[in-house]
Prior knowledge:
Strand content: under 5%
InterPro entries: DUF6221
Number of strands: 0
Largest sheet: none
Distance between the termini: 20 Å
Order of helices and strands: HHH
Pfam families: DUF6221
Amino acid sequence: xxxxxxxxxxxxxIDLELLRWAREDMEAxxxxxxxxxxxxxxxxxxxxxxxxxxxxxxxxxxxPCDELGQTYPPEDERGCTTRxxxxxxxxxxxxxxxxWRP
Length: 102
């Protein structure tokens, strides 16, 4: 596993933990009701996880984007445009590298 994929998985895990806290607060009635955004957040994390899994082999010759000829050099770590785009929401977080931008 490369640093970029590890970074993305860690950020998704952080998002999930924050969403769990928000859901617990909502269920306990200690915060304003914002269930739609919490549940949407869970769905977005699921989407990101599925896309990352689908494109995990891109750039190594076995991914769906490799068939299209859309690859980055191995030292780049992004693998494909889809993976690079998955990282954009996290570009302001510690650990994100400028070279990972699409």
